[in-house]
Every structure is written in structure tokens, then in C-alpha cells.
Design brief:
Layout (H helix, E strand, L loop, with lengths): L16 H30 L10 H26 L3 H31 L8 H28 L4 H5 L1 H31 L1
Helix pairs in contact: 1-4, 1-6, 2-3, 2-6, 3-4, 4-6
Length: 194
């Protein structure tokens, strides 16, 4: 059975099913992270005092550069598919996964330092929201890495069968990945700089 609109655009939306699905999913993610950012704002405005300098700005800035770089490699992975360069696609997708892993390694060191200083979520309201926001973001990064790993491994078979549909899957994964980078671009100044 052929599923319609896996490659060609739907006449009602102008998007293929995968792209429409990822946009709907990202709308729910906007609501999730929007609620958490709103919670942060309400907690901060209502607090009599708010800590400053609790987080490593340099580590946060390094993670920002890492994630922005991973967005570039994700775009290059998709563009390589559009140019029928399978080898470069795999290289760029692997680089994206590697940069995501580097981001998580940095978060590991940051989390370890906070736990060593007894700065768990129970330590203060600031650390409760810090752990919630960055932890949820980290779980989303892991989810993106799993999807990319699948597309790099067993899911890559689809390229031989239906290259356009495979490119659509990479594009949808890229949209998710760019959204996660955008969330971090908001998290970094809110938590680390303000």
C-alpha cells in the first residue's frame, strides 16, 4: 500500500506529511518550553533576590557555539543529499551527532560540578528551574541523536529505495534539531547571563 504525500506536497498545506508532522510536533514543543520559560519569568519576578554568577558563562558560551555549529552540519547533511552526495551527507550527519555528544559531555562536567557543590534542584529555586530547563533540553538532544543515529545506520536503507523520502526525513530531523538549538539560544542568556 502506497502512503500518499510522503514525497510530494499535500495540495491543502503545500507540505509533505513528514514536514507537516514535524511542524505540528514543534508547535507542541513551543508550548512546553514556553510554559517553562513563563514559569522562570514568574519565579524570577516574584523572587526577592536572584543569584548571579552561579553558572559558567564560558561553558555555556562554548555549548552555544557547539550547537550552532551542529545546526550548520545538519543543513550540510541535508544539502549533500539534495546534491546526491551520499558520502558527504554521512560525514555531516556524523559530525552533527559528534557535536551533540560534545555538548552533552560539557553538560556532564557542568552538572558534576554543581552536584559536587551540593547545588541540586533542592538547593534553590534558581537551581530547580536550571535543572528542569537544561535537563529537559538535554533529553531532547539525546532524542535527536537517537533519530540521527538511526538515519545514519539502519534507516539509511531508505536512500536506495526512495531517496526523496529519505531526504524529507533528514529535513524533518533538521527542523527538530534547529528548534533544539533555538531553545538553547534562549536558555543561554536567560540562565547564564541575566
Amino acid at each position: 500500500m502506497e502512503i500518499p504525500y510522503t514525497v510530494e506536497a499535500r495540495p491543502d498545506t503545500g507540505l509533505h506529511n513528514g514536514k507537516l508532522g514535524i511542524w505540528l510536533f514543534l508547535a507542541s514543543e513551543v508550548m512546553l518550553f514556553g510554559a517553562l520559560f513563563s514559569t522562570y519569568i514568574l519565579l524570577r519576578v516574584g523572587a526577592t533576590e536572584w543569584p548571579h554568577g552561579e553558572l559558567s558563562v564560558w561553558l555555556g558560551a562554548a555549548n552555544t557555539v557547539i550547537l550552532i555549529s551542529s545546526s550548520v552540519t545538519m543543513v550540510m547533511a541535508w544539502a549533500s543529499l539534495k546534491l546526491n552526495d551520499w558520502g558527504k551527507h554521512r560525514l555531516y550527519l556524523a559530525l552533527t551527532i559528534g557535536l551533540a555528544a560534545l555538548f552533552l559531555v560539557n553538560k556532564y562536567f557542568e552538572y558534576s560540578e554543581h552536584l559536587a557543590n551540593k547545588e541540586s534542584p533542592a538547593h534553590s529555586t534558581f537551581f530547580a528551574i536550571y535543572w528542569t530547563l537544561t535537563g529537559l533540553h538535554g533529553l531532547h538532544i539525546i532524542g535527536g541523536m537517537i533519530v540521527m543515529g538511526y538515519l545514519l545506520g539502519p534507516g539509511a536503507k531508505l536512500w536506495k529505495k526512495n531517496p526523496e523520502q529519505f531526504a524529507n526525513r533528514i529535513e524533518a530531523t533538521g527542523l527538530y534539531w534547529h528548534f533544539m538549538d533555538l531553545v538553547w539560544i534562549f536558555l543561554f542568556p536567560v540562565l547564564y547571563l541575566l
